[in-house]
């Protein structure tokens, strides 16, 4: 299978000033030499405790943040240096309620983002209808987003993330704050994206979700990879992936 993400010994440091006179430098190694790859069509999980370096990694992969060093390639191009070749072919969704206009309907939100991506007017209606259908928003497509539930807003965010028909969709905690029904609907959508041939890289703190959805995953802790493989291989002889995860994280923190 074709590799669409390749990360090797990737590092990102942040330097901040501390102390009363802000003369002391503090270096945070947010991502400290991680390596993994993602193949086309996979649902790939990026897991780790708060502050492990997940968002920093996603920002580098989505061309929003420059690495300090290491290899960070997406669709065969350098995420920093060749970002123009990547941007039109990927998209990302961050959990929470940012990224859509609440004073517009779902349809108008999607028209707006279609225009930003320079999607020809002729193609827009067909694509928007198809996406609204996929995320189960067709019935409410013309109501203002401010009247939507949290789950509907989250689905509208996914719709926004699909507007450029991306080959890779990055999702940072897509089911955060959703009730069980809403979260399940979202997982169904993610599975349908895979059936459609898309690659999905997601972060989540929900281990059952990872077990259910992900083909492979990597667990990072303090910027370093502590485990990678299929949910089954990481679970090993533990009763659940969660048990195995807790032991792994405890092991490196001891
Ligand atoms: N702009 C920044 N300046 C300084 N430190 C930063 C910056 N961005 C992130 N960090 C630090 O880098 C480390 C990794 O942060 P990151 O947001 O990548 O973690 P995360 O795994 O996404 O966490 P969470 O699950 O809480 O979202 C943390 O220690 C964080 O404080």
UniProtKB/TrEMBL annotation:
Q: Which residues form the ABC transporter domain?
A: 10-247
- Asked whether the keyword Repeat is assigned, the reply is no
**Keyword entries, A-Z:** ATP-binding, Nucleotide-binding, Transport
**Single Gene Ontology MF annotation:** ATP binding
| Family per similarity comment | Belongs to the ABC transporter superfamily.
Superkingdom of origin organism: Bacteria
In Swiss-Prot or TrEMBL terms, this protein is called ABC transporter ATP-binding protein
Which species is this UniProt entry from?
Answer: Butyrivibrio fibrisolvens
